[in-house]
Write a structure and sequence with these properties.
There is one protein chain. By secondary structure, this protein is of the alpha/beta class. It has one domain (39-395): TIM Barrel (Alpha-Beta Barrel). It is built from 15 helices and ten strands. Strands 3-4-5-6-7-8-9-10 form an eight-stranded parallel beta barrel, surrounded by four helices. Strand 5, helix 3 and strand 6 (164-166) form a beta-alpha-beta unit. Helix 3 packs parallel to helix 5.
Length: 399
């Protein structure tokens, strides 16, 4: 449970205007440490990795992981009733986390899921990112190169017991000349999957190299191509995640999906409304923000499953400004905010990221994240969070 505040606490935080402003911390919300009920939505948190801050390496070039803390993060999510989307962009996949380390992460996480299930007597849901990131997009000569790359990762992930999330491919986005190239690749890849997969459409706001995915810069036309691929391979598709940060586009595509195929929202701006749904359906979730707001997500989903929409809305409403801040443009730097939140909450002992990505957001950005996390009741030990924020301020020359 969260630690109570014993007295009023204040901290001087920088503002966007370059001044210092006194902020008074509030009490956290008392969220359970473990899920109390089964949810009526599938909810996957794209989990971050914890860097090894003491590794003797070149941090901009090498990938050093603290495996114990990284696996503990997954166990924390399973305890809260959330599934894990492993080795995704939140884990800095393709942005510091290379394919060999990704495969090691997947193997360790799938083994940890099996062990967690044995201890707790309930499933530890995990899906694993399968892509083509071991290729240099500039050196890819044909669509067949992309197919072989997907096949290589599929074989390796399935060999360690992982279920697949077929990630969008930078190499395919570069080499494809039309929608038919996407159809050819996905038809081949899906046909070989041992179990139904989650497809993954990551918008250009998350990764500029994926602009024009599915063969068109028009999202409506791209959506038709993706939906057509799903309909042609429906037995091999569990669902599709789209991350376009546009709720209307997600709803439009959701209504095109065949019966039994899930829409996994990747909309870190509008997730509450999309998960709640409407008279024509709802979205399940595969979200990076669920790593940062896991206790609130667990409690909100439990309330929804119990039929308490009012409580669902009350829990999620203050988390949305935090999420929109963490995912503000340039959106691809959202991982910094996710890791900073974990640091403030004592889930790791340092604010260091692979690739040196802790420097990707400014001090005023981090200060505003602190304020918004407090207002959402998500600083589970406010005194610890304050002391850690003071350390970060000191590194930046603010006493």
């Amino acid at each position: 449970m969260n630690a109570p505040i014993l007295s009023t606490m204040r901290i001087n935080l920088p503002t966007a205007a370059g001044k210092l402003e006194t902020f008074v911390l509030s009490e956290p919300r008392a969220y359970p440490d473990k899920a109390a009920a089964t949810c009526n939505r599938v909810a996957l948190a794209a989990a971050h990795v914890v860097a090894d801050a003491t590794a003797a390496n070149d941090p901009w070039l090498d990938c050093a992981i603290d495996w114990d803390r990284t696996i503990a993060t997954r166990e924390y999510l399973w305890d809260l009733g959330l599934g894990v989307a492993e080795a995704m962009d939140t884990a800095q996949r393709g942005m510091g986390l290379d394919w060999p380390t990704s495969l090691e992460l997947i193997g360790r996480a799938t083994r940890a899921a099996t062990a967690w299930e044995a201890r707790n007597g309930r499933p530890a849901l995990i899906f694993c990112g399968c892509g083509t990131d071991h290729l240099d997009p500039a050196e890819v000569g044909s669509v067949d190169d992309v197919i072989r790359a997907y096949e290589e990762q599929m074989t390796a992930i399935e060999a360690v017991g992982g279920r697949l999330i077929v990630m969008a491919s930078r190499a395919l986005a570069r080499i494809a000349k039309s929608a038919s190239d996407y159809e050819r690749v996905y038809d081949r890849v899906l046909a070989q999957a041992k179990a139904p997969v989650i497809m993954h459409w990551l918008g250009e706001m998350f990764d500029p190299a994926l602009a024009g995915y599915w063969g068109s810069g028009d999202h409506g036309r791209a959506m038709q191509t993706a939906a057509g691929i799903i309909k042609a391979n429906v037995a091999k598709v569990d669902g599709i995640k789209i991350s376009l940060l546009d709720k209307d586009k997600e709803i439009a595509m959701r209504r095109q999906l065949p019966a039994g195929v899930r829409m996994y929202t990747g909309d870190d701006f509008n997730y509450a409304e999309l998960i709640a749904g409407d008279a024509q359906g709802y979205s399940d979730a595969l979200l990076g923000i669920f790593d940062a707001i896991a206790p609130a997500a667990s409690a909100a989903l439990s309330a929804l499953a119990a039929g308490d929409r009012q409580q669902f809305d009350a829990i999620f409403e203050p988390t949305v400004p935090l999420s929109r801040h963490i995912f503000k443009a340039p959106t691809r730097f959202y991982k910094t905010g996710v890791v900073f939140t974990a640091y403030l909450n004592g889930l790791q002992d340092h604010f260091v990221m692979i690739g040196g990505q802790q420097s990707a957001r400014s001090l005023p950005h981090l200060a505003e994240l602190f304020r918004l996390a407090d207002r959402a009741g998500l600083l589970r030990d406010p005194d610890l969070a304050r002391r850690r924020m003071v350390r970060v301020l000191a590194v930046h020359g603010i006493a």
